[in-house]
Amino acid sequence: MQTHQALDGISEGLRSLNLDPPDCLLFKPSNENSWLGATFKNVPRYLFRVFTPMSRGATDPIWARSRDAADGNPNARRDIFARDEEEVASMLNQHLRWWEGVEDNFVSWTSSLLFALVYIFNRHASERDGSAFEDIFLCIVDTTLFPRGVFLRDLDLIDAFRRFDDQLYNLGILRREHRGGLLYFGEYLSQGALKIEGKCRIVSAQAMIDRGLYDLQPRFKEFADWQPTWEPLLASPVLELRAEFKQKSGDAWDVSFKEHLAAMDIADLFGGRWALPVAANLLALRPRRIWDQRILETFRAPRFTGSFSL
Predict the structure, then answer these.
(1) Which of 27, 90, 184, 272 ranks highest by number of CB atoms within 10 Å?
(2) Superkingdom of this entry's organism (predicted)?
(3) Contact residues for 192 (Cβ-Cβ < 8 A; gap 6+)
(4) Same-domain check for residues 258 and 143
């Protein structure tokens, strides 16, 4: 019996060691959570993150660090699947609800550029943040440049840990089932410190506004004038803008020349291999007609010819 206990202790100790590459902390689900390994291949190619000087953790052109990693917490180097399940469930629930907790080793990303852009105006209007647009940044990463296991979908992590926390269980129901799942915004999580140097591009909100962001979605100009409040809007504006996509295809917007120029100019801020996916996502902020000629012209532009992304 004592021998088995000793072996179990050694096994747990080995699992806790940081054997990952020094530039990331991989999710390593095992046993009853091994099904999560199959979800790694479903991570979207491009993910976005909005951050400010007031954000949890620390993000810069080299690293995206969780709050625990930024604070030097030793647990920041431990995979959540090697930690106590109840502690992880509580930490996950608090992170996803934006609550302050004792520990937080997660970093949030989204597959939805629309959500990320609305979040920019949320941070600007937040009395807890209130950053100027020149201090609010949009980061795009190419997930294919990272090892598998760096990113996991929030709903999958909720499913793995919901039995350990009733509030987390309820959050899963809210995101998946409330209003037909409309409150799901494509959130993905990384953990600990993630080196993003050479795998990302970061641009300020002010730079995008100066290049015509309001021309691509006029409602953003209205959002920029939100009055400061403790809990500014986020979900409801995203749902309102999503509702445009429920219209009949005949009601879709043709891409105007002004929108074409704005998408090109903002894409140029990101440059190189990032220009094409950014331009595509920007033009997709509103419903478009199939085979819209200006969209085709945009992607035939010389700046995209031979693009790695193309």
Answers:
(1) 27
(2) Eukaryota
(3) 24, 25, 65, 66, 68, 69, 76, 77, 105
(4) no
What residue ranges of the chain have pLDDT lower than 70? 1-21, 178-181, 248-252, 303-310
Token digits of residue 265: 């100019």
Measured distance CA(148)–CA(43) in Å, rounded:
9
pLDDT in tens, 94-134: 999 999 889 999 999 999 999 999 999 999 999 999 999 99
Clarify whether residues 87 and 162 are in a common domain: yes
What is residue 63's predicted lDDT score, i.e. its pLDDT?
98
Q: Are residues 65 and 150 in the same domain?
A: yes
Contacts of 161 by beta carbon, 8 Å cutoff, 6+ apart:
85, 88, 89, 92, 168
What whole-number distance in Å separates Cα of residue 215 and Cα of residue 119? Answer: 18
Q: Quick one: 64 and 105 in the same domain?
A: yes
Q: State the pLDDT at residue 306.
A: 52
- How high is the pLDDT of residue 303? 67
Quote the CA–CA distance of 110 and 13 in Å, as a whole number. Answer: 33
Verify that 124 and 194 share a domain, yes or no.
yes
Strand partners, 203: 138
Examine residue 8 and state whether it is found in any structural domain, yes or no.
no
Q: Does the residue 227 lie in any domain?
A: yes
150, 71 in Cβ contact below 8 A?
A: no
Decide if 309 is inside a domain: no
Asked if residue 216 and residue 176 are part of one domain, the reply reads no
Assigned domain for 310 exists: no
**Which domain does 231 fall in, by range?**
206-304
In the prediction, which pLDDT does 309 show? 44
Q: What is the C-alpha end-to-end distance of the chain, expressed in Å?
A: 60
